[in-house]
Design goal:
The chain is α+β, with helices and mostly antiparallel strands and 99 residues long. The protein is built from two helices and five strands; from the N terminus they run E-H-H-E-E-E-E. A hairpin with a 2-residue loop joins strand 2 and strand 3. It is globular.
């Protein structure tokens, strides 16, 4: 199974990566590895995580306060958000229409 990012989800992933790298050299790389590990788990077991609403599911990262929000599409996993867990919880919902 493959995956792709909503453009805004990819942008927020890169923004968070840059933020962590600025905080401490190497921490951005650690964040990227953690998010990609989470995505690998999603691709391997897409139905394993709970549904938030409609068909959108969330898998939490282990080390960072982030969740990967995604939907299961006919052609693979569509990542709607790489969401900081302390951010407004509904900010990503407009992305569902473009998926």
């Amino acid at each position: 199974m493959t995956f792709c990012f909503h453009p805004e989800a990819q942008a927020e992933f890169y923004e968070a990566l840059a933020y962590y790298e600025e905080c401490e050299p190497g921490l951005g790389c650690d964040f990227a590895l953690e998010v990609h590990s989470t995505i690998r788990s999603i691709v391997a077991h897409p139905w394993a995580w709970p549904t938030l609403e409609d068909e959108v599911r969330r898998c939490l990262t282990r080390r960072f306060p982030y969740g990967v929000l995604y939907s299961i599409e006919s052609d693979g996993i569509f990542i709607l958000a790489v969401m900081h867990l302390h951010r407004s919880p509904d900010y990503w919902k407009h992305r569902q229409e473009s998926g």
